[in-house]
Write a structure and sequence with these properties.
It is a single chain. This protein is mainly alpha-helical and 109 residues long. A two-stranded antiparallel ribbon has the order 1-2. A hairpin with a 5-residue loop joins strand 1 and strand 2. The chain is globular.
Length: 109
């Protein structure tokens, strides 16, 4: 059993949609869902490979948002107190960490 298909992806005009095509949750600022819950159908026998492709797409969407729109980019401070925007690798790492956490939760259920 794989938990999925519970958070519909769709346009804001769809009353049943929970997230948009940028993985953003409607009505909640700064929250994205990147897991099997937003799939429309269970993807075959072993959904992990589909989830990896899905998370790669989500990582690219997030990277594109923060590399094109620096006004909203979150800043982090390194040991030398210099400010840097999040790099693509850092964002991808955050998304991958979330995917791994979601997988662990599914495994432990």
């Amino acid at each position: 059993h794989h938990a999925c298909c519970t958070n519909k992806m769709g346009p804001a005009t769809d009353d049943m949609a929970v997230i948009n095509n940028n993985f953003e949750v409607y009505g909640v600022e700064n929250l994205r869902v990147v897991d099997l819950s937003s799939f429309s159908k269970i993807p075959g026998y072993f959904p992990l490979s589909s989830l990896f492709m899905y998370s790669e797409k989500a990582a690219q969407v997030i990277i594109d948002k923060y590399t094109d729109d620096t006004e909203h980019c979150t800043n982090i401070v390194d040991d030398h107190h210099h400010h840097h925007g999040l790099s693509g690798g850092q964002i991808a790492g955050i998304v991958l960490g979330c995917v791994i956490a979601a997988l662990l939760i599914l495994i432990l259920m």
